Amino acid sequence: MKTTTAKSGKLVIVESPAKAGTIQKYLGKDYTVMASMGHLVDLPKSQLGIDTENNFEPKYITIRGKAELVNSLKKEAKQSKKVYLATDPDREGEAISWHLAKVLGIDESEKCRITFNEITKNAVTNAIKSPREINTSLVDAQQARRVLDRIVGYKISPILWKKVKKGLSAGRVQSVATRLICDRENEINAFIPEEYWNLDANLIKDKKSFIAKFYGKNGKKIDLTNEKQTMEIVEDLEGATYTVSDVKELQKTKSPAPPFITSTLQQEAARKLGFTTKRTMQAAQQLYEGISIPSKGSIGLITYMRTDSLRISVESQVSAREFIKNNFGSEFVPKTPRIYKSKKDAQDAHEAIRPTYVELVPDKIKDSLSNDQYKLYKLIWERFLASQMTNAIYDVVSATIDAASYQFKATGSTVKFAGFTSLYIDTLDMEENEKSLPVLKTGTDIKLKELKFDQKFTQPPARYTEASLIKMLEEKGIGRPSTYSPTITTIIARGYVVRDKKQLVPTELGMIITELMREHFEEIIDVAFTATMEEQLDQIADGEVCWHKIVSEFYFPFDETLKKAEKEIGDIELKDDVSDVKCEKCGRMMVYKHGRFGKFLACPGFPECRNAKAIVKEVGVPCPQCGGAVVEKKTKSGKIFFGCENYPTCSFTSWDKPLDEKCEKCGSVIFRRMGRFKGKYCPKCNEENKQSKKQK
Fold it and tell me: How far apart are CA 144 and CA 673, in angstroms?
């Protein structure tokens, strides 16, 4: 796809049109910038495409629909004095450049490859000045991953089709991710809750109340495990005097979190913004490739978003420190620049994710960004700047309070110096909810307002969310920054996992496939084995080992396992849960099915009867417009909204949930906000307030 009609002696090929437009602006009329639209060639979909008897050589073909683009690129390359391959700066991008070189007839020794971590004028022009040869080790690592994934997918999937049902698939990383989710579900089902009790003293000093938690007796900690034990202590405390026996005051400092890498960006965007990994990466890609900003044109706003390195450039650090000094004050700038250490297996080719220009404050360019782009850019901008700011300092007070022979403990903290927290607080730190205590001195008696005690039970481990699953995959060394998002997308699309609110829940199909894989392909879904394979791919990328050797060592034992599994696996019958809804077309009782957007009802008579419909979930409130039932619905992207059952006759729809409550002022239906900002409101009164403010 051409972005300019100007003829040039130099051709630059990137992956996307958006990036092409941004780079064209920097290079000017002497260059033609074109987009390959991702890969031009790939393995064929109709066959394995790998010669397992000839050193596992892949058979690449031009992707359907790209022949015209290939011819256009060839024609332009032929007329150009120099061709620069500027695809993304990772293994996938290196492989695309390698394929482009093959297609365009560029010699392997030609210095044609350019990369940049950020799409800024300096980065692009500097890259043009120092092209390099294509890194064949990175290409080999990508080929090895592609070949291994193809072998696993195309060899196991037909067995699943034959033994379970058509349309199923297995994958080297997706199967491990599904196993983690299924294992967690098994843990939850096997969990036996244990009883425990809380005992808190609500105390008052200088008219200020605070909570002291039960600690123990005679200085020894006691765990409260039953009602009898707890009530005996409550009886012992009846009429007791509560006296401060010890006060410790200390200063605590808290350091900022490092700038984002791919996994932490996906996790924090999920927790803070409610974004799925796919939504996060789409917005990040757009911010990286270029956004049109008034008076500046199209510019890349963030560095490359697929990275696991915490390194940042000296220039960006200097800019950040200068910005912090000018906008927050010199006391917010650390004496020495902060340097964060990446984990040992991180790919250090890229920087951490940061804004390309710190002076582009999110609120100043908000009008140029979509809602998702703005939210994500603000998150990245604030996290990066905060990572270069001084520590927060807290005054912490810990008090021990004696009552009879028992001890209670209270802790409070106050901010002495906000430091980085004046700009950014990590969601994990938000969970710390410490409060200040009144002034407490040793030997002082405290008035008891009340003793609170309640029974609790230990809770099973939480189901994975996208954020916690990514964290686990990263900790276990499964996959790499570029694979987290597509892995989660795939297992949901296959129906192995469904997203329930934010939780990832395995379906019956997911559990069955995981058990089948565990029994017959244990190595494929083994966490340690998959992590080791990732390490071997890294070794290939570093040029330490030949990719053919790694694939060969995997394939031949795997082939024997396949033959054995095909003989041993019997036919598995999947039983659908039967609903109480009768199919209006044929009279059968409809069954629950899992689809891309969750559960739906389908006729078991398929393919003779193809009736299917959404599951209607009534809210239990009459429609404010016509009195019909309000039902919960979903958009194509899976977002929940509320509408009338009589649609399209009745047009009532709302993102917020109508409640069975009436406004005391006007009698209208009250709604509950379903977004980040919770709370109830009356739409009619809200609108009247807005109008009266406008009139004023």
Answer: 49
Place of tokens 């105390």: 203
- Tokens of residue 290, six digits: 């270029």
Instruction: State residue 285 phi and psi, 5-degree precision.
Output: -60, -45
pLDDT per residue over 295-334, tens digit each? 888 899 999 999 999 999 999 999 999 999 999 999 999 9
Cα angle: 679, vertex 683, 687; to 5 degrees: 120
500, pLDDT greater than 60: yes
Strand partners, 296: none
Q: How far is it, in rounded angstroms, from Cα 166 to Cα 158? A: 8
DSSP 241-276: -EEEEEEEEEEEEEPPPPPB-HHHHHHHIIIII---
- Known catalytic membership, residue 424: no
Burial class for 228, CB neighbours closer than 10 Å (0-12, 13-18, 19+): exposed
Distance CA 170, CA 161 (A): 10
- Distance (Å, whole) CA 152 – CA 663: 60
Q: What is the 3-state secondary structure (H, E, C) of 148-194?
A: HHHHHHHHHHHHHHHHCCCCCCCCCCHHHHHHHHHHHHHHHHHCCCC
Q: How far apart are the C-alpha atoms of 565 and 560, rounded to whole Å?
A: 9
Q: Could you tell me the two tokens for 390? A: 């001084």
Would you say 509 and 182 are in contact if contact means Cβ atoms under 8 Å apart?
A: no
Output the DSSP codes for 626-675.
Answer: TS-EEEEEE-TT--EEEEETTTTTS--EESSEEEEEE-TTT-PEEEE--S
What digits encode the pLDDT tens for the residues 577-601? 788 889 989 999 999 876 656 678 8
- Assign 3-class secondary structure to 184-218: HHHHHHHCCCCEEEEEEEEEEECCEEEEEEEEEEC
- Please give the Cα distance from 134 to 94 (Å, whole number): 7
Side-chain-side CA neighbours of residue 481 (13 Å): 26
pLDDT grade, residue 606 (50/70/90)?
Answer: confident
pTM of the model: 0.81
Give the Cα separation of 394 and 415 in Å (integer): 5
**Cis bond leading into 44, ω under 30°?**
no
Strand ranges, E, within 389-490: 392-403, 406-417, 445-457
Query: Residue holding tokens 């396992």?
Result: 561
Give the integer Cα–Cα distance in Å for 302 and 299.
Answer: 9
- Give the single-character DSSP code of 350: S
3-class secondary structure, 436: coil
Measured N-to-C along each axis, helices 136-163 and 91-104 cross at an angle, to the nearest 10 degrees, of 100
The answer to whether residues 343 and 308 touch, using CB atoms and an 8 Å cutoff, is: yes
Q: Point out the catalytic residue in the list 304, 424, 484, 496.
A: 304
